[in-house]
Amino acid sequence: MCAKMAFQHQAGTAMECLSMAFYMCSLSIVFPSIRHIPITLQKEPGLDPEGREVLKCGFKIGGGIDQDYRKSPQGYTDNGIYVTEVHDGSPAAKSGLRMHDKILQCNGYDFTMVTHKKAVDYIKKHPILNLLVARKGVTST
């Protein structure tokens, strides 16, 4: 089924969706214990340390193509963007985001080849985050 999906491209249509579908399908074959989960996170109003109003999402990230994953205290094995902390009761926790989730996309933007700063800036910029995450050890329901 995966191979069939990979060759259904028609001229004039976007390849991005096709390649992501193939990528996700390929990962599911190679790493059957990794599942791709869509998460929608609505930020909530809060205050930053200086007392300014901001929209808070309640999670922290680590990684990026500019980081050395071998120095990661979490032991990650690649330069992906990973969730390193989720605050209890936060929008992230309420949406189902978990520590160690790997963020593949945010609002359709590819997070597999971004710097840490680019990922942080992109997350801060948007009030709603439509995430696609990879999570180890989740079985199909």
Automatic annotation (TrEMBL):
InterPro entries: PDZ, PDZ_sf, Synaptic_Scaffolding_LAP-MAGUK, Tax1-binding_p3. PROSITE patterns: PDZ. Residues 38-125 form the PDZ domain. This is PDZ domain-containing protein. It comes from Timema podura.
